[in-house]
Amino acid sequence: MESGRRRRSTASELRDVLRQRSLRANKRMGQHFLVDRGILRSIAAAAHLTEEDTVIEVGPGTGLLTSELQALAGEVIAVELDPQLVTLLRETFEQGGNVEVVAGDILTLSPVQLLAHHSTRGTTHYKVVANLPYYITSPVLRHFLHSEMPPQLMIVMVQEEVGRAITAEPGDMSLLSVSVQAFARPTIVRRVSARSFHPHPKVDSLVLRLELVASPLVAIDQAPGFLDFVGAGFHSPRKQLRNSFGHSLSLDRMRIDELLSRAEVDPVRRPETLTVDEWVRLWRLYQDMLPGEPSC
Known about the structure:
By secondary structure, the chain is an alpha/beta fold. It has twelve helices and nine strands.
């Protein structure tokens, strides 16, 4: 441990700090502060951090998780939107240490920008750790998974229902499942009770580990088109795929049947039953069928 690093207070002391500063969770920002030290440590441990690692932490809040990351990683770039919490974080983590607090909206800050301007190592390799506000889970995942410089690994806390959707298997797939699993292998690290937060949210959470694949099934620059296509397939998720595509693709019924036949996908199957590989195969064949479109 470097002498300049400081450990944060316990959860009960943190509540005292919030009261002393007249700080309250901002409902508009979806703030729920994780205050269970054991869970904080398990999140940091799931990232398998070493002194060689750079971590981008999204939404550090009061800094309890930041403290755990600080103790394990070489450097932590903590991005916080709430200006009051930015002040608290900068007072807590000493200038010149291994934590850089960045004020801003993560959705407007690319990983390339963050590493170029705030990493002291000039690295292009990093991991993401985040206790995400529920309402920005999908945008933040897309922000990193589809980045020109994606992370090696993501450890994220999400609403339990969303976590189950992300890790779903064929039979229960959704647009969210496909959008993540085309680029990463998601697994559940642990479940987290609503009682572990201050204030308590209405639902429990899951901690997920997303291991980015070295060669994603879809090139990053083609991700928007692929997801638009998958979204068309889920236009009517409980209908047969033939009918769902019929309402959303610029192909007539005969061409849709041809597409499904060429992909060896039964037209009466429902979209939630398809594997990610099948979606990718369908999309590539669809690109070939469009007039004037190059083969992918």
